[in-house]
Design goal:
Blueprint: H1 3-26, H2 35-54, H3 57-70, H4 72-75, H5 83-99, E1 128-129, E2 133-139, E3 142-152, E4 154-160, E5 163-173, E6 177-185, E7 188-193, E8 198-206, E9 209-213, E10 223-231, E11 234-239
Parallel strand pairs: 1-3, 2-4, 3-5, 4-6, 5-7, 6-10, 7-11, 8-10, 9-11
Helix pairs in contact: 1-2, 2-3, 3-5
Length: 240
């Protein structure tokens, strides 16, 4: 069973269990238990299991923290809820991500040319990044980067507790395709790509969000494959 299919089955079963819990509660078989506590505990358990499968430390620890907060009376852990356990989850996430950084693997995709644009938005600061493989990490600050070159194939971008803007408006992709691996935690990451590009998004979201603004071209010859993970952060792709 493929991973996506497994996740659908997994979440489907969890929500079926929630439906059963609702009926049992109404029939009086769950006396002393609050339905919504049971339901949200099931959802949080699902997030916890998904975090374990995806090795997302933030999702694992914050799911555990929320489970403890939701059931603190049952577990007799009122002394550590809510802020101590949430603070421990935050510090634990940062520490584990430092000790065990992820090593992303690039996936092979079929190569689906858009002429290089001369447009470059005016900014106060900028740094030019070039080369076939580009890697940049930013933390605790506001950073703007421009990606240029004619044979770009791989880009790794990491933003932690800060704001990172990356412009691809002067970039040309190797064989008309490139893979961008993003890791955004407790921060903001914004990617600006030409409107003629096709952007395929397959980013894991753990208490975070990924959005697109503007209109891309699904039939575009240039394709940017966006992968990676966002945890307690925001990633946005702007088509300009």
């Amino acid at each position: 069973m493929k991973k996506k299919q497994f996740k659908k089955v997994f979440w489907g079963i969890l929500f079926l269990l929630g439906a059963i819990a609702l009926l049992l509660g109404r029939l009086g078989y769950l006396e002393g238990l609050n339905f919504w506590s049971v339901f949200f505990s099931i959802v949080l358990f699902g997030l916890l299991a998904d975090g374990v499968l995806g090795r997302s430390f933030g999702q694992i620890l914050f799911s555990l923290a929320c489970l403890i907060i939701l059931n603190d009376e049952l577990l007799h852990l009122e002394m550590i809820t809510p802020w101590p356990v949430l603070g421990a989850a935050l510090l634990g996430t940062i520490g584990l991500n430092i000790l065990f950084p992820k090593r992303w693997k690039y996936k092979d995709h079929p190569v689906p040319p858009y002429p290089r644009s001369s447009r470059r938005p005016e900014r106060r600061e900028e740094e030019i990044l070039s080369g076939e493989e580009i890697r940049y990490e930013a933390s605790f600050g506001y950073v703007v980067k421009y990606v240029v070159g004619s044979n770009i194939s791989r880009i790794f971008l990491k933003s932690s507790f800060g704001n990172l803007e990356v412009y691809f408006t002067d970039a040309s992709l190797k064989n008309n395709a490139a893979h961008a691996l993003v890791e955004c935690s407790f921060g903001n990451l914004e990617l600006y790509v030409p409107a003629g590009w096709n952007v395929v998004i397959n980013v894991r979201q753990a208490f975070g969000s990924v959005e697109e603004s503007g209109y891309g071209n699904p039939a575009g010859v240039n394709t940017l494959y966006l992968e990676g993970e966002v945890s307690f952060g925001h990633v946005e792709v702007h088509h300009i």
